[in-house]
Design brief:
Elements: H1 2-27, E1 29-31, H2 33-43, H3 45-65, E2 71-81, E3 84-97, E4 103-112, E5 127-135, H4 144-211, H5 217-248, E6 265-267, H6 279-292, H7 294-315, E7 320-329, H8 341-346, E8 348-355, H9 361-428, H10 434-468
Length: 475
């Protein structure tokens, strides 16, 4: 009778396993980690915010380039007092800043009236001019416009580093939530199987008690084990449902519409397998991190911005020496004869301006402050580089340690399963007790739960290593 019950037990277990597999294939929808990544990077608000950083930097560069926009201005002044017309002044100017410092100017002036300032007297048809203003001291090699544009270009790369950092932080949290979801899903499966097994054993024990093969107290033992596993299943379902909510929290549709996980969506069982990393590969990841880590990249670019700022501050120590030449002609349009050398030598307006602060306290203070900022940035870069390197080594050590722990735990699971099967055989032949077989099953469950936990930690450790390197692999 005992052997018949053992055979029935095996048949029911096999049938339950077959039904479960059929349901998985027919009704369950699997969400892989890569699919999860794609959904998040497409519509998640944080991913959209990260993309806006690039757009902000692009507009900052446009603003900076706006300092080189040509400027057209027109001024009209008229004075009349006591019935007398004093003057009418009309001045038009076009200024075209050039990238390398000089500024092209062109204009047309017209004036009339009884009381004109002699400086404003022009021919009857007006006076047109075209010329150039060239800085020979301060502003010859760098000026505020060029410094602003160079810094704005560097700011674009800083914004890209910020975008990558923000995406990496999002993907790290997303990945941790996904592996927690998978861990609790496996736990629920394990507790459901163990509950089915304990329930079947309870029915078998009741049948044997009725036949007189077992004492009635064994029924209480079997029922207690069923209730214990029901409690464990409920606790596991709570953790699983909360993990599903956490995973669903990252799912968004178009127009910031939050999405929910479908009831039959489950995580993929693939991805937590052992994938060893050699020290050579680790070294390549470290070298890549030193070159491309967002934090290091930001500090390096900030250092380049400070170099531009230092050049500009040092240039401010020079005197302002500007030379301006304008070719004049008594008409609105420039005739071809105006470009004759002899004509240019007799019809022009020339100006030279020179200015220099006596103490240069503001300029010297700005230069020294920039140097202090550069030293501060240099120290921050050294510290951050050390932190990135140590974080990578710590993540690599955890990766390797978890590999060894998983291998040992897999052996422990195998040993616990062997002991459980041996105890089941002894129980079927009447050489063991219900208490012992329950104890063996509990030990097996504990070993499998720990294995699931280690695999989840291992999958997180892999993600943590690439996050520490500054680039989580999406594909």
């Amino acid at each position: 009778m005992q052997r018949i019950l053992g055979i029935v037990w095996l048949m029911v277990s096999f049938m339950n396993s077959s039904v479960s597999k059929a349901q998985t294939q027919d009704s369950v929808q699997i969400l892989t980690l890569q699919q999860y990544y794609r959904l998040i990077l497409t519509h998640h608000p944080v991913a959209s915010q990260a993309d806006l950083l690039t757009e902000q930097a692009r507009q900052e560069l446009r603003i900076a380039r706006g300092t080189l926009d040509p400027v057209v201005s027109s001024k009209l002044y008229r004075k009349e007092f006591g019935g007398k017309e004093y003057y009418n002044l009309w001045s038009n100017t076009l200024q075209v800043p050039l990238w390398f410092g000089p500024e092209i100017k062109a204009g047309f002036d017209k004036a009339q009236g009884q009381y004109l300032n002699p400086e404003n007297v022009v021919p009857e048809n007006g006076l047109s001019y075209a010329g150039i203003s060239v800085p020979l001291g301060q502003g010859l090699f760098i000026d505020e416009r060029r410094a602003t544009i160079k810094q704005a270009r560097l700011f674009q790369e800083i914004a890209e580093a910020d975008r990558i950092k923000l995406i990496n932080k999002l993907l790290l949290q997303v990945t941790k939530d996904y592996w927690d979801w998978l861990q609790y899903y496996r736990e629920v499966q394990l507790f459901e199987e163990s509950l089915d097994l304990a329930s079947f054993r309870l029915q078998a024990v009741k049948a044997r008690v009725q036949e007189g093969d077992l004492a009635a107290i064994d029924t209480v033992e079997a029922l207690t084990e069923v209730q214990n596993r029901q409690v464990m299943l409920q606790e596991s379902l709570l953790r699983y449902n909360n993990a599903r909510l956490q995973v669903a929290q990252h799912l968004w549709g178009e127009n910031e519409v939050p999405l929910e996980l479908q009831e039959h969506t489950i995580p993929s069982l693939a991805g937590s397998e052992i994938t060893p990393m050699s020290r050579e590969e680790m070294q390549r990841v470290l070298e890549s991190a030193k070159a491309n880590h967002p934090d290091l990249r930001k500090l390096d670019l900030k250092g380049q911005q400070l170099q531009v700022e230092q050049r500009f501050a040092a240039d401010k120590l020079k005197p302002k020496l500007n030379v301006e030449y304008n070719l004049l002609q008594s008409d609105f349009f420039m005739n071809q004869e105006a470009f004759d050398r002899q004509y240019m030598g007799g019809n022009y307006k020339l100006g030279i301006s020179l200015s220099q602060p006596l103490f240069l306290r503001q300029e010297r203070g700005k230069l020294q402050l920039t140097k202090v900022k550069q030293e501060e940035n240099k120290l921050a870069l050294a510290q951050t580089s050390r932190e990135v390197e140590n974080s990578l080594h710590a993540a690599f050590n955890e990766w390797q340690a978890l590999e060894n722990q998983i291998r040992l735990q897999e052996q422990m699971v195998t040993n616990a399963r062997t002991l459980r099967e041996g105890e089941s055989t002894r129980f079927q032949s009447g050489e063991s007790s219900l208490f012992l077989i329950n104890s063996r099953e509990v030990k097996l469950m504990e070993a499998e739960l720990k294995l699931y936990n280690l695999r989840a930690k291992y999958a997180k450790a892999k993600t943590l290593l690439y996050w520490a390197a500054g680039n989580i692999e999406v594909d």
